[in-house]
Amino acid sequence: MSVIGLLTFTNLNSVMAQDAAATDQAAQTEQITDDSAAAAEEAVAAEPVAPVADEVEESKSFHEVLKEKYIQGGAGWMTPVLLCLILGMALVIERIIYLNMATTNVDALLGGIEDNVKKGDYNAAKELCRNTRGPVASIFYQGLDRIDEGLENVEKSLTSYGGVQMARLEANLTWIALFIALAPSFGFLGTVIGMVQAFDDIEKAGDISPTVVAGGMKVALLTTIFGLIVAIILQIFYNYILTKIESLVAQMEDGTITFMDILVKNKK
Asked: Fewer CB atoms < 10 Å away: N or C end of the chain?
């Protein structure tokens, strides 16, 4: 019995020792797993997040977008449209400068002419007109230059020289109108040719897929868009110039009538 009890106690201690060892090993394994998971989480947190492409990509400037669309439209057809804009704007700027310089304070000029005519000093009146810029002063000078020939000849000279001044005011307007018409025409022509090329691409590909058609259509329509934009810009300035010319012509007509009244009233 003593031997049996001793063996039983020895086996029990061995089993308990094995259970304790297994428990320690499991605890160590769990600790290692927890440490690995924590390390993985820290690595993920520390890893830099790649920025989104849309946020990193900077927006293109207007100049870059315009340049890109110009290239896409094709230099062969976009260049004539650009030339229409450059030449048209050059003429527009020239006309605006000329018309602004032609603007005259007619009332002040007529007041000075009347003061000199009342004194009988026509040379001083002519000198005043010569030193005053603008078509109105030039017309008055032509009338004063013929004062000795009679009022009838003065009136004829005013009418004749007024027509000359009106022609000078309207100079280059036909060219501006030409560029207004040419710009969209070049755009439409580029569009039609682009459409033909798009159908050629469809024929070569043997397929009418949107990818084949969209590229040619986009390039074709860009020329029309730029042509219409150029025409609109030039048309706005063209109408401004016409309005300015009408204002100057009205000044010329009203001033001429008042000028003749001054001469008639002070003619001796």
From this structure: C
